[in-house]
Design goal:
Blueprint lengths: L1 H9 L6 H9 L6 E5 L6 H14 L7 E5 L11 H11 L6 E6 L7 H10 L3 E7 L2 H11 L4 E5 L5 H10 L6 H11 L12 H24 L4 H13 L4 E2 L1 H10 L6 H13 L3 E4 L1 E3 L4 E2 L4 E5 L2 H7 L7 H15 L3 E6 L5 E8 L2 E8 L5 H12 L7 E5 L7 E3 L2 E5 H6 L5
Parallel strand pairs: 1-4, 1-5, 2-3, 3-4, 8-11, 13-14, 14-16
Antiparallel strand pairs: 6-10, 7-10, 8-9, 11-12, 12-13, 15-16
Length: 418
């Protein structure tokens, strides 16, 4: 019986409904569909889910062509011409063909093959990649406006709790959130909720792979130790304002010499790999983005905790991290707000011409803390929505002259609203 339960966990798949709906919406439209995201966030599984949807909707299995270039089976097809010839040899004449090219960055000059397939009226093309510099920077040039992009993240808290319930392990939201923060939002680890040692090994494996394959190899970095020093500094300082100059000076003071230009290059590599996300500072009154002292957030809090120990006082910044990623999932462009008097708003979130302001705090039950968190929001004189998100259960929801205090777990689990 135990073996059967283990097998069921191994075969467990989490339905990524929002992402799946995105693919369904763009189905058979004459445009290339691109899915980007950090390694192991679930891109390949999403393609499998979509394949299942296509089959259920009446598509013949022969119309679906899936190539994963991390699979040695397709190693000989990593030249664009060989890949193109292989795919075209499998096309079903007179029918729509659904072509899935996973980890396409492994194919040299892939854009030539993808463009040619895109031009065929009976080809619906989907591609994935793990490197954001490649996927978002170069791709705009390589495919020049012929694509739409889905930016995929690991599991949201809502998806995580739904996965727990599907496995018969429903937990109170506060317990589920602790598990989410400590175990990881990477989908694979949801299958093994009590295997902490294995989870740490898995997360360190992701870290090593991203660093070596998506940063070191890409940027041809000769000294991996320096890159690791910069990475660890960034993970220690999640949610803090930093600059390449500050990082370089701090590392030099600890005997780990590195210059500002090198730090800047490594930071770009870490954000390109999608391990880190940059929230640029935004002058709210002047309505302009600033190029200095950005804040950075990690793609998965548990990944950060697996590599950085002894920083339990960072609860507020780690909660910020979760809120930041959730705002991205909900389609917002997110920046760190700056007021003229030196005050700060944690997040300015923009979407479709509208703006939402967010402050985040682990707790605001203390009157002084509440006053401090509300102060920058009260100085904003426009009529855009303003939120204070906390973990408070008592007085978790309140209204302070139009500023809405909300329990962050309720907000994370809520489909609507902000």
């Amino acid at each position: 019986m135990q073996n059967m339960q283990n097998m069921q966990k191994e075969n467990f798949t989490i339905e990524r409904r929002e992402y799946l709906n995105w693919l369904i919406t763009w189905r058979e439209r004459q445009i290339i569909k691109v899915v980007s995201g950090v390694r192991r966030c679930g891109k390949s599984t999403l393609f499998e889910l979509y394949r299942g949807h296509l089959l259920e909707s009446g598509v013949d299995a022969r119309q679906i062509h899936m190539l994963n270039f991390e699979d040695v089976t397709f190693e000989e097809l990593t030249h664009y011409r060989k890949m193109y010839d292989y795919v075209t040899s499998k096309l079903l004449a007179g029918r729509m063909n659904y072509i899935f090219l996973d980890e396409i960055q492994r194919v040299g000059q892939f854009e030539k093959a993808v463009d040619s397939l895109f031009l065929k009226k009976n080809c619906d093309v989907y591609i994935t990649g793990s490197n954001a510099y490649f996927m978002s920077g170069e791709l705009a040039t390589l495919l020049s406006g012929r694509y739409v992009e889905l930016k995929m993240l690991p599991l949201s808290f809502r998806e995580f709790t739904a996965g727990l319930k599907a496995q018969g392990r429903a937990l109170p939201s506060n317990e589920a959130f602790t598990l989410y923060m400590n175990q990881s939002s990477f989908p694979y680890l949801l299958r093994f909720p009590s295997a902490q040692a294995e989870a740490l090994d898995y997360l360190r494996g992701i870290y090593d792979t991203v660093l070596l394959k998506d940063v070191v190899t890409r940027l041809r970095i000769p000294d991996v130790n320096v890159l690791e020093n910069v990475t660890k500094f960034m993970l220690h300082n999640v949610g803090n304002k930093v600059s390449p100059t500050k990082i370089a000076n701090t590392l030099k003071s600890k005997g780990r010499g590195v210059d500002q230009k090198t730090v800047d290059r490594y930071l770009r590599g870490l954000t390109d790999s999608l391990m880190l996300y940059e929230a640029s500072r935004y002058n709210i009154k002047g309505r302009q983005y600033l190029t200095t002292q950005s804040k950075y957030y990690v793609v998965d809090v548990a990944l950060r905790n697996a590599l950085v120990r002894g920083h339990d006082d960072d609860a507020g910044h780690l909660l910020e991290n979760v809120v930041y990623l959730e705002l991205l999932r909900r389609g917002f462009r997110v920046s760190a707000g700056m007021l003229d008097d030196g005050g700060e708003v944690d997040f300015v979130a923009e979407k479709a011409g509208s703006v939402v302001y967010c402050q985040v705090a682990a707790t605001a039950l203390d009157e002084d803390v509440l006053r401090r968190e509300l102060a920058p929001l009260r100085r904003l004189l426009d009529n855009y929505p303003k939120y204070l998100l906390t973990l408070d259960e008592t007085f978790g929801n309140a209204n302070y002259d139009g500023i809405l205090k909300r329990n962050v777990l309720d907000w994370l689990l809520n489909d609507g609203g902000l």
